[in-house]
Specification:
2 domains; single chain; globular; Isopropylmalate Dehydrogenase
Length: about 350
């Protein structure tokens, strides 16, 4: 890792607040010698937390940046952005804008973070809408899926832009030279779906991307493609459905193995298998959604992330910085799309 890797962490966002962010930051600094982190938030409480966890000897690569305001989870994003100009989230984004940090990580209000990222950092040339992208577990590893909620309604141009961004992320961060790509639809036949989906399908079929056509919702976790493109409405519904199903299965397993004495004994016998399964499906290992399209690296951690999950969000941001994700998005956009179709209207 380059010694100049600097990340700004919104230390006040998320359900766990500063305690989670400080614990994660200290653990990552110990693990990664070349990393520098800026904790943005109320300096007094942050200093106290850092001192308690380091015995009064904080790492030299950990810096504190005062931010007197906090954007709460329940705040209206537009109102919060206008009224809380000294919020920790805003200052963390500003640090990326000025070049003092190379990426921002926050577990705070998703809507406010998206508004700030687009307003302060602006969009990459040729792109007009950001997309939320995250890794989804599959039978053979994971697949990248976008958009997961930033844009409820999309044009065909924007879906093609998302395909470029997702493919660039798969190449840059995950090392897939020719990532396969699918478009989420209600069927795999070319006549299925509304006009926008079919238009995007036609354009992607003519692009230089490794496009494999339509895929359905039940294909998401099968790992058929490396990148799945969707509008934000369908993508978010699919994501929340998968999360809810995972919780339901977990609850069912727990109930069944605690129902009787015999089932509890059976649970002890198969516990190693259950533990291995839980580790494979641990959502903390996939924490960290990328805001693709903005002219800066911004990673959104889940709001209820613990320190383990937040560390993975930090790692995602670090990897995107080190692999020069923004440059690779622009390079792929110029390479795979005809000049007249590079920019969205």
């Amino acid at each position: 890792m380059h010694p100049s890797t600097v990340l700004a962490l919104d230390a006040m966002g998320g359900d766990g607040g500063p305690a989670v962010v400080v614990e994660a930051a200290l653990a990552e600094l110990e693990r990664v010698p070349g990393l520098e982190l800026i904790l943005v938030g109320a300096e007094g409480p942050l200093q106290k937390l850092v001192s308690e966890r380091t015995g009064g000897a904080p790492p030299a690569r950990l810096h504190l940046q005062e931010a007197p305001e906090v954007i709460a989870m329940e705040d209206n994003p537009i109102v919060a952005v206008r009224q809380k100009k000294h919020a920790s989230m805003r200052i963390a984004i500003d640090l990326v804008h000025t070049g003092a940090a190379q990426a921002c990580v926050s577990a705070g209000n998703t809507g406010a973070l998206m508004v700030l990222a687009k307003m302060v950092l602006k969009m990459l040339p040729g792109l007009d809408r950001p997309a939320i992208c995250a890794a989804i577990p599959t039978r053979n590893g994971h697949t990248l899926m976008l958009d997961l909620g930033a844009n409820a309604v999309c044009t065909a141009n924007q879906l093609v832009d998302f395909a470029v961004m997702g493919s660039a992320l798969a190449q840059a961060v995950h090392g897939i030279s020719q990532p396969t790509l699918g478009l989420l639809n209600i069927g795999t036949e070319e006549i299925k779906g509304h006009g926008t989906i079919r238009e995007a399908h036609e354009r992607l079929s003519k692009s230089g991307l490794n496009y494999r056509g339509f895929i359905e919702g039940n294909d998401i976790n099968r790992g058929r493609v490396d990148v799945i493109v969707s509008d934000g409405f369908a993508g978010n519904v699919a994501l929340k459905t998968m999360e809810g199903t995972a919780h339901l299965i977990n609850d069912y397993v727990r109930e069944e193995f605690s129902r009787t004495l015999l089932s509890r004994i059976s649970g002890l016998v198969v516990w190693p298998v259950i533990r291995s399964l839980r580790q494979r499906l641990d959502p903390r290992l996939y924490n960290g959604a990328s805001f693709l399209g903005v002219n800066g690296i911004v990673v959104k951690s889940h709001g209820n992330a613990d320190a383990v999950a937040f560390r993975h969000a930090i790692r995602r941001a670090t990897s995107e910085v080190q692999n020069e994700l923004l440059a690779k998005i622009l390079r792929l956009q110029r390479t795979v799309l005809p000049p007249t179709e590079e920019a969205s209207p």
